[in-house]
Amino acid sequence: MLDDLIVDKKINQIHHVSKKGTLLITIASLFIIIAGLKFSQSIVIPILLSLFITILSSPFLFWLRSKKVPDVLSLALIISLIAGFGTFSVGVIGSSSSEFSTNLPIYEAQLKLKMAVVFNLIESSGFNIDTLKIRSLVNPATVFQFVSSGLNQVGAILAQFLLILLMVSFMLMETSRLYSKLSTAGSKRPKIYEKTSDKTVSFIQILIQKVNRYMFLKTLFSLVTAVCVTLFLSLYNIHYPFLWGFLAFLLNFIPNVGSVIAAIPVILLGFVQYNMTHAIIILCFYLVINTVIGSIIEPKFMGKGLGLSPLFIFISLLFWGWLFGAIGMLLAIPLTMVVKIVLETNPGTRWAASIIGSS
Q: Domain ranges in the chain?
């Protein structure tokens, strides 16, 4: 009896040590994977962009197939649309960001002069604040530099547009055959693995559907936001309206803070071109458009499909932004959704998915 107790105790100790060892191996593996992604981001980023463009385009491909359009023609049409949008984006980013970078010292000098006038008005009004300390801590001109560096990074990715377009073409060709390949692979497995195969196909379908729904709706609302911003700034005669519209389109993919980041340089530019009154009018426009689209219309259509905690949205922005830069922040939410769905499929990690989730 005593021997049995000793044996059971040793077995429990071994099991406990084994669990600790598995946990340490998992953590070490995660660090190695993250380090590998960081090191190879020049290869990973174009692949991720190609993958998400493919997921976004695949429903259109299936819709054309349902209308009896030949696959070759469907693929050519989709690639032409992507190429047209990409060419326009490269043109806008290239010409506008180059001109903006050239004029950047002028804007910074004018902004400093106008800010000095504002600080002098504050001092003459009798407000007891240390304007010298504020000037040393806050330099609005750095916003222009931040925007310029961000646009240069996006421009560097767009420079690989032909490579991305080629990868999207091959991915779209494989998309239509993906489910049939999985089903065929599953039918060739032993019977004991049939249920596992069905679960794999179901998991991939759910994963693609959820990511596709989010990307489609977010792209649609981002496009509407970009059109509204471009039209308003064009009518208001703000410099580079297409550039700011494109920036609004991109940054709208970043929840909560993206629209704020997109508005700040335009407000400052309005202040530089005109005065504080015009800057406030631009601020009010951004508040209205982002409130109507981002807080009223978008949640109505999105529903609870996003299913991410606001805290983990913020954490994901920091993590993917650190890992992949500006492009990582744009893809942060879809990537985090993929992680959440993967965690949900494993009974052992569902607790982690519930923590990431919004409910």
A: 305-359
